[in-house]
Amino acid sequence: MTNHTDVLIVGAGPTGLALGIDLARRGVDALVVEKADALFPGSRGKGIQPRTMEVFDDLGVIDEILAKGGAYPTGAVWKDGRKVGEHRMFEPSETDPDTPYGTPWMVPQWRTQEILFARLTELGGTVAFGREVTGFTQDETGVTVEFASGTTVRTRYLVAADGGRSLVRRTLGIGMTGETVDPNPMLVADVRITGLDRDNVHVFPPHGDVGFLAVFPLSGTEDFQVIAQFPEGTDIDLSLDGIRGTVAARTHLAPEDVTELRWASDFRPRAALADRFRAGRVFLAGDAAHVHSPAGGQGLNTSVQDAYNLGWKLGAVLREGAPESLLDTYEEERLPNAADMLGISTQVHRGEVQRGKATQQLGLGYRNRSLAVDTRTNLPEDEDVLRAGDRAPDRTIDGVRLFDTFRGPHWTLLALDTKPPTAVGDAVRVVEGPAVETYGTGLFLVRPDGYVGWAGTTEDGLAEYAERYGLR
């Protein structure tokens, strides 16, 4: 293992791997270290939201994600051994020219991590397994990270992607503000089952003192995921026999119908948000910064968005001459978004909000933040009007798909029914075309993470913006 790197990422979950990919494609020297000897083996974070699918498109893994997963099946509600109704996990949604991925996609977390790991390796990135971080110290020029082996690594920046019990966060002394979402403990397990079809999610509602149980066929595998709720204070038996007993007690299946246990865990649904996402040269991302109830399918997705936001900013500072102050915008942008998604996750868990548009993360953005500059005047009050800070939607202009143009670690300037300026350098890809619905007319400078950074009807102010972030 190297003793020096530009960025050291603690944790090889979806957050750490996505960040590693983004940095590798930018030519940033980064190292991912993982305490375990292998990737996480379970399916816990299985829902990929539409916005995260757009991120995976940009990172070069969407084809594998689509091939190795599938849409969520309709839920079949069971009672006394008979199907008695249907349950839809998500409100119906429609695809349109702005949104190429309209519905969530089910991929077991272990499979998502395998895909991300393969892409990181393809780009020349490295994961050092069996490397436990025990502490670190930072100064004005970098961070010295200590390992259980007695070795150290010097890094310019340290990113904590080491989960809800993050050692890095605790070492920094950053607190988490949170609440118990549900006092009832939960079981999640990957099993092999006979006697259930793979065309439905099988839902067994609660009755009496017994909580609900649901069985999900995991796309692209022979496995099912079992999720079960237990009364408060229950000590859940995670053994094969224990899970067999739970399934047999709440369904029409016999214990022996559960033929194999592949992974199991228990948890207490809670929501928590770190008080800060940055301390000096150390950043918190993923579960180290926010812990969600799994009900809304937001934890993994919000975590990948953290990595996507932080990756281009670290790359700009380390490789493109952008000012260090750009890194301050990571917390400015991500902490409020994480807080919003925590609220939605909790509301979904409690049945106050349905899974649908609110959980797809397509509407999240960074309006009114320091990187969002809109010089246009007299814009309508309509919230749907595209503004700086919003996600840049997909469209096809003169036969060119915008998402194909955005893909890659660069900025993009759209000149729509407007003469392109000469105020930006080679670091920006310029696309000319007629005005299109959603965008309208004008100049739109799209950030590397697919959000509109600057917008205007003329180029006045664009040169100053571009220079501020190392684009000239």
Automatic annotation (TrEMBL):
Query: Which keywords fit this entry according to its UniProt record?
Result: FAD, Flavoprotein
Its required cofactor(s), as named, are: FAD
Transcription regulation in keyword set: no
NCBIfam families given for it? PRK06184.1
Q: Which SUPFAM superfamilies match?
A: FAD/NAD(P)-binding domain
Q: State the protein's name.
A: FAD-dependent oxidoreductase
**Pfam families noted in UniProt:** FAD_binding_3, Rng_hyd_C
Species annotation: Streptomyces hokutonensis
Q: Where does the FAD-binding domain lie?
A: 5-342
